[in-house]
Design a protein that fits this description.
The structure holds two protein chains of two kinds. Chain A is built from 36 helices and 26 strands. Chain A is α+β, with helices and mostly antiparallel strands. Chain A is elongated, with a radius of gyration of 36 Å. In chain A, 53% of the residues are buried. By secondary structure, chain B is mainly beta. The longest helix of chain B has 18 residues. The chains are: A alpha+beta, B mainly beta. At the A-B interface, helix 27, helix 28, helix 35 and strand 18 of A face helix 1 of B.
């Protein structure tokens, strides 16, 4: 057969093998028949020595009959080689090399000084068809040969080149390398075996190249020796053998996820055994783990280079997922040539984008992190409480109506209550569905927003996916949700989109620009509604980003636009509170950072700033500053901060963490040329970065987005079950971990809430009113002096239940009294006391009135005493601190403040306008 | 340059963050007075009376004394309900008969004053019967009672009074002259809300010369008392108290019983030594006797053997219980000691059941002058240091009760003796401000 025209290629007739290279040929046996055929075809002619390796007694006999030495295994082969043998030629027993194949390999070895070279493999039944020319793999060891099915050999690959792996059917390898590696791993299928062999060779410092002038015909019988699932099993085994621990820490779980996704998809596509095969692959690896670890030790013992050397010849992303995407496309197309098919065609590109499937996996992680929420409900604790019904009443109360927290107030409820009520209104009033919908949307939108932000900062693909995941489920969110501060989740989403809008390229058309502004105002409104002070984050971000040279007047202008949008959404609330009050009021949160998180964060930040690349400095520097300022705010409880600044701290730290993690992992891909010291520090940074992702695993495992147990979901059902005909009466909570904000009496937390489900409308406390002060005085006297009948006095406040979430000094005040009785409730973790005195919230001469959530109704009466702080908006009457209303109409409602109501309409209108503007941009894109 | 600046900024910022003080969010400790006492053993505005009786033989009274006068409500619970309650105005001393609250029965009662300091006492007088039971102004989780006997002709009943709206669970350990007396039926006892539960101790512990009980309330509160009755009808009641390491008794007995017996009980797990000091009209008699109380033991010390006929003090190196028990053929009396001294005392009921012998004891080192106010009268009594002097309070036609104030710390108690029956009682100290 004529040789192909490569200037480096010569025929065996023209050039005799150089005397520097002495080759021993070994036929890798699979069956006796194949070995017999190989020897009969004189496959290993031309070598100085000939051997048959492996197989059973029959193979040994065949070898003997053919005048060839048989050895049991490759290590045995190395032991029997003559001292003059410098190279080994490993040949499959179903391979038929051309006469000059060996010479071509030897010539290339000498010329390239390569440690391992392989032949071009052609299909023996169709010698003009290419089977393999080696190639690249992805990080999981899945090969991507670039060949298409039934590709003709037209010399298109006839270039000697370094590759990730060479075909295992014909490999020439240096004897000393062979001795160090111990030969190919015969437990693996052929292709995986070849990849593993080449990876180990490269890891040992060897050069691996394909020599297309060396042609070998392949009968393909060896491909059927092992079942298909052994391919995945072998890939796992190969990963464990070659990669360092740090790489393994993420490669193995990701490969598992990819394998699961692939198996599920293929099962749905009509291959029902796919998942079973995956299970078998996992079990096989568990069974052979001992041998795998032994092989790993051997490979690591001869290791000369790090994993980066392997990464050089690897493709980004997952070949398996790309292949799945392509197969899915074809599958869909085969079933629907219409809209779906054309959609798939248009979108084909993004299936194959690196980071796409990582993104899918991240969204799966988010889903798993909140699985208890989606399938049951949000744990009722902290600030994640039940929404009152109906939402229209909540919105009306926010818009100039009654704030029911404590003993009532004219101060509007926290804006997050109104924002949540809007969503509740849209979904038809179901409070439970509202809470999980907002939680899910917040996490997904937060993730997507952070990814978008990172992309505009120059971080894309897998690093952006990891960074975004660390932002929505990382240490800052873990610290916040542990305290029950659920509102930070939607705030992070809003801030992420707001910041992304700041730095994204300014669109060209006016419609797109309007849309951009609309999105930013909307995002600002969402962020501000849940954590009001978060509106200042974009302004701070713009300032920091401009320090790194990205100066543009548009940045601060857009930041102010976004902040203004946020403040518009807060209009009714801002009418009542001052910034100073907001900064100091409420129970400050505190981010109790685990020491190892702090240490890992310090290593990541300092390490990457000190030795990171110049390109990564702006991103990591910005993220680091945001994280530090956020942590500073989130820990400023003892320096005078109230609830809102500390909540902002968590939001800021979460966004900053996303930027830092994304930047750090993006920086890792550019380690080429790094010196030993720099590489060592960056390895440490990488390790610390992985450590910072551990809280993500904790939150994912929790299933409740880290919000902890449901403390108040059903434990207060007794207030409804044992209620009087007028409805549940008030509950006095005392102790630790109460729902929402609390008041303090001699450092003992307490608060009063309505009976029934604990409602978000009462989570935040308004400024103390007359009723709050009166109760504080009573509780103080109970603490100091005790009372024999505290129930009679609590009755005046409409308090029928006292719930002690933990023992306090106030517990003693109720332990030995004549009118408060401890309830022996089973399955209730709290100490519950019942006031035996009648304690309706609204007392009238005939029958008590009923609380409606924001007002009272009952039988007409001349006057009704309400256990609410007196206010002219109830009416002119009062009984000490309590309100007395004219009950002739059968209802008592808090008069509306028209100014606040107008501001509420403005807030709603501005958000609606922003939404419309955002929709305008969607139309522009179409 | 940027790299350096950023590094410095991060180091400084991170240091600030790390150094921010961690807020102490732990709750203040739940403090309890040893041993788990609510309130103090001094006059307050509520008194828990473990015994009151109204029947054909006896109609006891709730006797009250309140400094400055107050309104009072007396509530008697029974079988989980409030069986009866009355309200009165008490100018300074007063009494309410049980039958006006509950027509018939033997229950406990709660006396609530609208102002204080105040205290109350349950007193009963009938043919051959004189009984007084002090009402507790404080509650405890650990109570000691001792001194009753179940010898032939003597009936001994343990009363557990729970005036509160929740059930109480108590654990009772019994000791006698024979040592520990395990009794499974008393290991965990439930006392329903707003009720009194009684136990006949003669049935499980017959023929015992002296019994001591340790009552602990792991759940809820009760007020225990012992009710000793003779076949001929005299009744003696004494209320339990928490252990203390010092007890004062301003008298040693009465004429009909002679010097009584000191009953000491150690419920601890370590031996405890005790020392008795006598206070007579002639002065202090130090080291009258001493001894070691073994763990979980009760000891009876006849005061006649010690030559004590007036007041005495018992001091121990660990908290114990101390009771004075008077016995004769026809009479029984008993009382717990007083664990404290004070300059002012409320003496409810003195003079209401006949002539009373008030005893004022001065265990200090300086003489004091005590002013005894009763009825319309006030009389001064000199009480030399280390002595116990007697003062006779005549029977009052109405409004029995009195007050004692002294220029120095004293201890006040009184006995009433009609020649057949006897009752012991201690006054209630007012805490010095």
């Amino acid at each position: 057969m004529p040789l192909h025209n490569d200037v480096h290629m010569t025929s065996s007739a023209e050039v005799a093998p150089t005397t520097r290279v002495t080759v021993a040929a070994a036929v890798i046996a699979s069956t006796a028949n194949d070995v017999r055929n190989a020897l009969a075809a004189r496959a290993v002619e031309g070598a100085a020595a000939r051997y048959v390796v492996g197989g059973d007694a029959e193979v040994e006999k065949v070898a003997g009959d053919g005048g060839v030495v048989w050895v049991r295994s490759v290590p045995d082969l190395v032991g029997v080689l003559g001292p003059d043998v410098t190279h080994l030629w490993l040949l499959h027993d179903d391979a038929r090399p051309r006469p000059d194949a060996l010479n071509a390999l030897v010539a290339a070895t000498e010329r390239l000084d390569a440690s391992m070279v392989g032949s071009k493999i052609l299909d023996a039944s169709h010698p003009e068809m290419l089977e393999s020319v080696g190639g690249a793999t992805d990080v999981y060891g899945v090969p991507d040969t670039a060949l298409v099915s039934d590709e003709m050999d037209q010399e298109q690959y006839d270039v000697v080149r370094d590759v990730a792996y060479v075909p295992g059917e014909s490999v020439l390898i240096r004897r000393d390398l062979m001795r160090g590696l111990g030969g190919p791993d015969l437990t693996m299928p052929p292709v995986v075996r070849a990849i593993d062999f080449a990876q180990r060779a490269r890891l040992a410092g060897g050069r691996v190249a394909v020599v297309p002038s060396s042609e070998v015909l392949h009968i393909r019988s060896c491909a059927q020796q092992l079942p298909g699932w052994r391919r995945v099993a072998g890939q796992w085994r190969a990963q464990i053998k070659v990669y360092g621990g740090l790489t393994l820490a993420w490669v193995i779980p990701f490969f598992l996820l990819i394998a699961v996704v692939d198996s599920v998809a293929r099962t749905l596509m009509g291959r029902p055994g796919a998942l079973f095969d995956l299970a078998r692959a996992i079990l096989w690896n568990l069974k052979h783990l001992g041998g795998t670890l032994k092989a790993r030790r051997r490979a690591r013992a001869v290791r000369q280079v790090g994993d980066e050397e392997l990464f050089r010849y690897q493709l980004r992303g997952s070949v398996a997922m790309r292949r799945l995407g392509s197969d899915l496309t074809d599958w869909f197309r085969a079933r629907d040539e219409g809209a779906v098919g054309s959609f798939i065609d248009r979108r084909r590109g993004f299936w194959q984008e690196s980071g796409f499937f990582t993104g899918v996996l991240s969204l799966v992680a988010i889903f798993v992190a909140g699985r208890a929420v989606w399938f049951d409900r949000l744990p009722v604790s902290g600030f994640a409480l039940t929404m009152p019904d109906p939402p229209a009443a909540t919105l009306a109360a926010y818009a100039g109506g009654f704030n029911p927290s404590g003993f009532g107030s004219a101060q509007p409820m926290h804006p997050s209550v109104a924002a949540t009520a809007v969503v509740q209104f849209v979904v038809g009033g179901d409070g439970r569905r509202t809470m999980w919908l907002i939680s899910l949307a917040a996490l997904v939108a937060g993730y997507l927003g952070l990814r978008r932000l990172l992309a505009t900062l120059g971080v894309d693909g897998i690093p952006a996916a990891i960074g975004a995941l660390a932002g929505v489920l990382g240490p800052a969110v873990a610290g916040g949700t542990r305290l029950g501060v659920w509102p930070i989740l939607p705030a992070i989403a809003g801030v992420a989109w707001l910041m992304a809008g700041l730095v994204a390229p300014w669109p060209a058309g006016w419609r797109s620009r309007i849309g951009r502004v609309g999105v930013m105002v909307l995002a600002g409104g969402v962020a501000a509604s849940y954590v009001p002070l978060s509106v200042v984050i974009p302004i701070g971000f713009a300032g920091v980003w401009s320090v790194f040279g990205y100066r543009s007047l548009r940045l601060p202008i857009l930041a102010v636009v976004g902040a203004t949008g946020g403040m518009l959404a807060l209009a009714p609330w801002l009418w009542w509170v001052s910034i100073g009050t907001v900064a100091r009021a409420g129970n400050a949160l505190f981010w109790d950072v685990d020491w190892w998180v702090a240490l890992a964060g310090a290593i990541v930040l300092l390490g990457s700033v000190i030795v990171g690349s110049r390109d990564s400095l702006p991103v990591i520097g910005t993220g680091g500053l945001l994280t530090i300022v956020g942590a500073w705010l989130a820990r400023s409880a003892e320096v005078g901060s109230g609830y809102e600044p500390t909540a902002v701290g968590f939001v800021l730290a979460a966004v900053g963490t996303a930027i830092v993690i994304g930047g750090v992992f993006d920086m890792m891909s550019g380690l080429d040329g790094a010196n030993v010291v720099r590489r060592g520090i960056l390895r440490l940074v990488q390790l610390a970065g992985v450590a910072l992702l551990l809280p993500v695993l904790v939150i994912v495992a929790s299933g409740t987005v880290g919000l902890g147990e449901d403390r108040f979901g059903s434990t207060l059902d007794f207030t409804t079950a044992r209620s009087e005909p007028h409805g549940p009466d008030r509950v006095l909570f005392v102790g630790e971990d109460l729902p929402g904000q609390v008041r303090l009496l001699d450092e003992i937390p307490y608060k009063v809430m309505s009976g029934g489900p604990v409602r978000m409308a009462e989570a935040w406390l308004a400024r103390p009113t007359s009723g709050d002060r009166a109760l504080e005085a009573l509780l103080g006297s109970l603490l100091d002096e005790g009372r024999l009948r505290p129930g009679a006095e609590l009755a005046g406040f409409g308090i029928r239940w006292v719930v002690m979430t933990s023992p306090t000094r106030l517990s003693e005040a109720f332990d030995a009294t004549l009118d408060v009785k401890r309830l022996p409730l089973l399955d209730n973790p709290f100490a519950v006391y019942e006031n035996l005195e009648s304690a309706p919230r609204a007392d009238s001469p005939d029958r008590p009135w009923s609380w409606t959530g924001f007002g009272y109704v009952g039988d007409p009466a001349e006057s009704v005493r309400l256990a609410e702080s007196s206010s002219t908006r109830w009416g002119p009457g009062s009984d000490g601190w309590a309100a007395v209303v004219d009950g002739e109409g059968g209802s008592a409602d808090f008069a509306i403040d028209p100014t606040v109501r107008l501001l509420a309409w403005i807030a709603l209108g501005s958000m609606a306008a922003a939404l419309a503007a955002a929709a305008v941009s969607l139309g522009a894109r179409r | 340059m940027k790299r350096i600046a950023l590094t410095v900024l991060m180091v400084v910022g991170g240091t600030f963050v790390a150094l921010f003080p961690v807020p102490d969010r732990s709750l203040p400790p739940v403090t309890t007075q040893a041993p788990d006492v609510i309130g103090s053993d001094t006059a307050r505005t509520v008194a828990y009376c473990p015994w009151a009786r109204s029947d054909a033989i006896l109609d006891s009274t709730f006797s009250m004394a309140v400094l400055g006068g107050a309104d009072v409500e007396i509530m008697v619970p029974r079988a989980g309900q409030v069986a009866g309650s009355v309200r009165r105005a008490v100018p300074d001393v007063g009494s309410v008969v049980m039958s006006s609250v509950v027509p018939f029965g033997s229950e406990g009662g709660v006396v609530e004053f609208t102002a204080g300091p105040a205290s109350a006492l349950s007193l009963g007088a009938g043919p051959g019967i004189l009984a007084s039971a002090d009402c507790r102004t404080s509650l405890s989780k650990v109570w000691l009672l001792a001194g009753g006997s179940t010898l032939p002709g003597e009936l001994l009943e343990l009363r557990l009074f729970n005036p509160f709206p929740q059930d109480a669970k108590v654990t009772i350990r019994v000791t006698s002259e024979n040592g520990a007396e395990p009794e499974s039926t008393l290991e965990t006892v439930s006392v329903p809300a707003r009720s009194t539960r009684t136990f006949d101790l003669a049935r499980p512990f017959p023929q015992r010369g002296v019994l001591a009980l340790s009552i602990t309330d792991p759940d809820g509160f009760v007020i225990p008392a012992l009710n000793q009755a003779l076949d001929n009808g005299d009744v003696a009641l004494w209320t339990a108290g928490p252990p203390a390491d010092q007890w004062f008794f301003p008298y040693a007995g009465s004429g009909s019983t002679g010097p009584g017996s000191l009953v000491l009980v150690n419920d601890g797990v370590e031996p405890t030594s005790f020392l008795v000091t006598g206070y007579t009209a002639a002065g202090t008699v130090p080291d009258v006797t001493d001894g070691i109380l073994q763990p979980r033991s009760v000891v009876v010390v006849p005061l006649a053997d010690l030559g004590i006929t007036d007041g005495f003090e018992v001091a121990a190196d660990a908290p114990i219980g101390a009771f004075l028990i008077g016995r004769s053929d026809t009479a029984r009396a008993g009382t717990r000691g007083v664990p404290t001294v004070a300059t002012r005392w409320l003496v409810p009921g003195v003079g209401s059941v006949g002539l009373a012998n008030l005893a004022i004891m001065n265990p200090g080192t300086e003489s004091v002058t005590a002013t005894v106010a009763y009825g319309e009268r006030q009389e001064k009594v000199a009480v030399p240091a280390g002595t116990s002097v007697a003062f006779v309070v005549p029977a009052a036609s109405s409004g029995a009760g009195g007050f004692v104030s002294a220029t120095g710390p004293v201890v006040v108690g009184w006995t009433v003796d009609d020649g057949v029956a006897v009752a012991f009682s201690m006054a209630t100290p007012i805490a010095d401000e």
